[in-house]
Amino acid sequence: MLLLLFVAARIALTVYSERYSITSRDISIEKGLFLQKKKVIIPLNRVAMLTKQQSLLERLLRTGDVIIETFSGHTMVFKEIYDPEEVATLLAELRGHSPARQE
Questions:
Q1: Residue 22 in contact with residue 90, Cβ under 8 Å?
Q2: Which of 45, 54, 95, 98 could form a disulfide with 58 if both were Cys (CB 3.0 to 4.6 A apart)?
Q3: How many angstroms separate the first and last alpha carbons of the chain?
């Protein structure tokens, strides 16, 4: 039972310790709840493809993932965000391209 609680707490801290940021110039993810462990920054002009990923339940709850791939092959995933359609549309507008494709 204690092991199960430990695993659940670790997963919760991992999921809820990510903060996403979108500016007119770049996209970033900061990881770490108390101490900032890692900050990934990708300039918008380096984004090659946007993909939304949602299950049927996630569509009903209006949540899902937005997957961002760069020209150099790096992948960034905005996990379990509310209204991924709006986020993908915003990113597409900032990039000046068509909206993300659905998976």
A1: yes
A2: 54
A3: 37
Nearest Cα to Cα of residue 85 among 68, 70, 100: 100
Q: Where are the beta strands (DSSP E) in the chain?
A: 18-22, 26-31, 38-43, 47-53, 63-70, 75-82, 101-102
| Cβ atoms within 10 Å of 71's Cβ, excluding its own | 10
Cβ atoms 91, 22 nearer than 8 A: yes
Burial classification of residue 87, based on how many CB atoms lie within 10 Å of its CB (0-12 exposed, 13-18 middle, 19 or more buried): buried
Q: Are strands 26-31 and 18-22 parallel, antiparallel or unpaired?
A: antiparallel
pTM for this one? Answer: 0.69
Within 13 Å of residue 16, how many CA atoms lie on the same side as its CB? 7
pLDDT in tens, 54-77: 999 888 988 899 999 999 888 888
